[in-house]
Amino acid sequence: MIGRIQVEDVKRPAATRKDSAWGAGTADRPICLPKPQYTKVNGETPPYRSVRALDSLRQFPESGIRTITDLVRRSASKYGLCHAVASRTTVAIHTRTQDADVDGKSKTVELVELTGYTFTTYTKYEKLTIDLGCGLINVGLKAREDKLCIWAQTCADWLAIFHGAASRAIPIVTAYSSLGLSGIQHALTSTEASSMFVDAQGLERLDAVLTAAPLIRIVIYGGDPGASRERCDDLKAKFPTVRFLHIDELQLSGNQLPAERGGPDAEDLCAIFYTSGSTGNPKGVPLKHKHIVAAVAGWEHVLGRHLGTSDRYLSYLPLAHIMEFNLSHLALYRGACIGYGSPRTLFDATVHSCRGDFRELRPTCTVGVPAVWESVRKAVLGRIGALPASEQTGFWQALEDAKTFSYNRLPSPDSSDGRFAPARELLGGRLRWALTGGGPIAADTQEFISHVIVPLCGGFGMTETSAIAGVTDPADWRNGFGSLGSVPDCAEVKLVDEPTTGYLTSSSPPEGEIWLRSHSATDHYYNDEFETAMAFTEDGWFKTGDIGRIDARGAICIIDRKKNLVKTLNGEYIALEKIEAIYRSCTTVRNVCVYADSRRKKPIAIILPNKQAAVALVEAELLNSYGASNESDDVMMQRLVLRQLQDRARERDLPGLETVEGVILSPLEEWSPANGTMSAVGKLVRRGVLAAHQDQVDQVLAALPPV
């Protein structure tokens, strides 16, 4: 076995928060109330609205902004010389062979060396988007007829080419950069897109795409034009009817020969976003300019006062994901600077001879999925575990002091700031607030991050609603653990009975499927009448598929998704995402997929293990037993990981039917879009995880005692 023996954990002081303290300050103040003068419907709650929008829902962040182009123009006029976007460029890619891991295997990894950030002002950014829009017209694209598919990783060029297209009423089609051939082919052919924007990675994969999508006649590419010249020459020879040009050429064309002016209208189609496909085939969601502008209005009245020209927002999730896309537009509306990063370059440990994106940009706000925040928490805990016992005790005491002060609405003690400074420096040291979205997060993880590093606020939405359905105000973060805050000012929500699973609006508090109606929401899927009829009502309600409750303050709380509610042998339902969030916080777990077989009373867990933490458990067990064990290391590791999961379930008071009775340790190095186990935005693809581990699942189920 390779690995270090884990030092015995230092006893953590017990939590001191009193429930009565939770009601201090704004805790009892309603944030949403029933809509006045509604017609009662059996099996439904009244529609709930923000207390700021009880009489009418907001459509625009301010008068004069009806389209995305209006928003960009207004921000350039208001914030001209302020920084709008910031980017880094690649200096070199270094190859390094990592030492053998716990399985005795070594592997080669690539680490990127990057420059510092280069900043672009709002004035220059608007000029860039105008030039790109004119360039698109000059190369033959027609407003409201042609569509431009963006197949690239998150970067400043992604947003600029979108704004250029939007300025000339050319709709875009989004495609995750990780999409395989079938996915990108579906997006291109179903929308009849005639042009594409790709980055350097997309350019390398373009042969099969162009063969499968013969309607494409123009390809615009980003990255280093010199490095891509040979590749472009090869593509031109293979596809002589397709025109290839670099984004700089497109800008130059628009600058030298401005096209006749003609902008979009609020009712114009702005973009077709594709859902991530984590629970089925991706669906096209058409969003008009008015939908995205309304979403900005919704975000603005919750987050707007926490954003300004001195802020830096780190953007690294896919811009093809509607949440990242619309938060970027809120940042632009408020005059903040958007700094672009990448999931593989966020931290110092994953880059070469430079600082990671967090420490280089030093952002004041950002958004992440639960897996990111779990990894941050575990990184902090790893550092704490390496400290002397006295310093560990000091850290945990500082955390409990911070909780006590916070829940009583008192400023944090200076001792806490000193203890937490190294952890905060991991993320640049300047974060004031952050959002978590894309799935449930364990409440204690959210609480830990909020006290030690940055207030972590929940966000709830989906592509169909332009990302926004609920969000916690950063000023109200103490009341946000386990809830998703207020309905935005552009929307209203209600709960509808889900009798098959026992979620009823007559419960106290009321529970049911969340339905939403909003100025930011579309009313159909693109060219998909069947799915449209299933998800949208004639009077404008969208059935989210999420099961939730509304608490006494009017805050939204998510219980699970209808598709993730599984009936066990005894006829009771378990909420997979809820318990996965709890198990994911275990030190031995990098990721987890809970599987409930209808022939069993309890579920099992498929674990992507943290091998070092799992090995440490085995070594500690061997040390305590003086090596007297007949188990193989693998069998012992499986048993100890299962025990840790079951201990965690007891700590969180999970009922017996939600406590796993078996565990599978995944042999895969990673769960990722490449092997079909994760979506492009970090969501589990359950059918993919199960397919990859079906043999092990069958073996574990067969070995369990009879029911």
Automatic annotation (TrEMBL):
Annotated GO MF terms: ATP binding; long-chain fatty acid-CoA ligase activity
Record-listed E.C. numbers: 6.2.1.3
Biased composition (Basic and acidic residues): 1-20
GO BP: long-chain fatty-acyl-CoA metabolic process
Family annotation (InterPro entries): AMP-binding_CS (IPR020845), AMP-dep_synth/lig_dom (IPR000873), ANL_N_sf (IPR042099)
Alphabetically ordered keywords of this record: ATP-binding, Ligase, Nucleotide-binding
Transmembrane segments: none
Reaction(s) the record says it catalyses: a long-chain fatty acid + ATP + CoA = a long-chain fatty acyl-CoA + AMP + diphosphate
Enzyme superclass (EC): ligase
GO CC annotation terms, alphabetical: endoplasmic reticulum; lipid droplet; plasma membrane
Top-rank lineage group of the source organism: Eukaryota
The keyword Transcription is annotated on this UniProt entry: no
Region Disordered, residue ranges: 1-27
Ranges of residues in domain AMP-dependent synthetase/ligase: 109-526
Family listed: Belongs to the ATP-dependent AMP-binding enzyme family.
Protein name per the record: Long-chain fatty acid-CoA ligase
Source species of the chain: Extremus antarcticus
Source lineage: Eukaryota, Fungi, Dikarya, Ascomycota, Pezizomycotina
